[in-house]
Amino acid sequence: MITTATRLRLQDICQRIALGEPVTLSERIELQKFADRDRSVLSWMNRAQRTQGQGAVTGLNQLLMDMDLGSRDPADQHRPEDDLGGWFGNADPWLRRD
Questions:
Q1: Which of 11, 27, 42, 91 has its CA 20 to 30 A from that of 66?
Q2: C-beta separation of 34 from 41 below 8 A
Q3: Angular region, 55: left φ>0, alpha ψ -120 to 50, beta rest
Q4: Which residues, including other chains, have CB under 8 Å from residue 80's CB and lie 6 or more apart?
Q5: pTM of this prediction?
Q6: What confidence score (pLDDT) does residue 89 get?
């Protein structure tokens, strides 16, 4: 559980990330430290990074962002190597057998 002061500081950092404003390395390290331990902080950080990369979001993309689904990086869409059949095709023989 994080204190109110810490929560407000982390949300301020996330807001600056979303707006594309400067964030120091120590602030990013602090944010990542809390994101590694707290799922809600991770959600704030992901949302801020998506907003920074995509700008104004509407429609289905807004729904996905609100539900914290999808990738933080818009360029990280479906890749051929993410295909499940391709993964099993390149897997070890013992795994393909199962």
A1: 27
A2: yes
A3: left
A4: 86
A5: 0.61
A6: 63
